[in-house]
Amino acid sequence: MAISGLVITYNEEKNIGKCIDALFEVCDEVIIVDSLSVDNTVKIAEEKGAKVVSQKFLGDGPQRTHGLPFCKNDWILNLDADEFLDKDSKEFILKGKYLEGNYDAFSFRVKNFLADELIDFSGWYPDHKVRFFNKKTAKPSEAKVHQKIETTNEKKVAVHILHYGWESFEQIIAKKNQYSTWHAQQLFDQGKRVGAMKPVINGLTAFVRCYFFKKGIFNGIDGITIALIQGFFSHMKYAKLLKLQRQEKLLKR
Who wins on pLDDT, 145 or 103? Predict the structure, then answer.
């Protein structure tokens, strides 16, 4: 069956060419929903044969949903620009194994890399994501941060996506900081309210889980660094939510 590749982008000139080439190995079309990039993302995408739809960023879930009507096929492979199918996931798709059974979405395992180093500790592996689904019965949620595919019949399969998301710890910290801000705002908009100890409790819990229970302790300086980052930004998400709550109280006064 024909498959549509769907990617949301913003300033991804470094990755988008390789991403599109890889998608065309299993897809017969590639749709790019671009958030008004100011680099060469759009030019490269069009030269590679992708169709580009320009749309100011609506949030993670809504941006992906915006691209669905432009996809002519029911089956959607929705990767990020820095994600690629591993050999086993290519085989899974090309051999039509996804047509076995009545499943409308598939959750793949994600291998996360820091530069060229696989981070398979601190809860980063196996990290499951639904990136392959049938748009007739499954779709991205409306969550603006870390959206999930809403599905009626999902299956986890032991095949992999390769995620080259960070070149340095600085990039991890910058992205985590951005996500924690978005996530705090999303929780606030949903009416979530927390007490003063919530950031501390969640931060400590996240660190302990990543460092002791998710094998960070066995991976030297990288293990403790990743665990500290996870703990800190779990703390910051709720610290930022508390700040929004205080601002709300001040406005009411």
Answer: 103
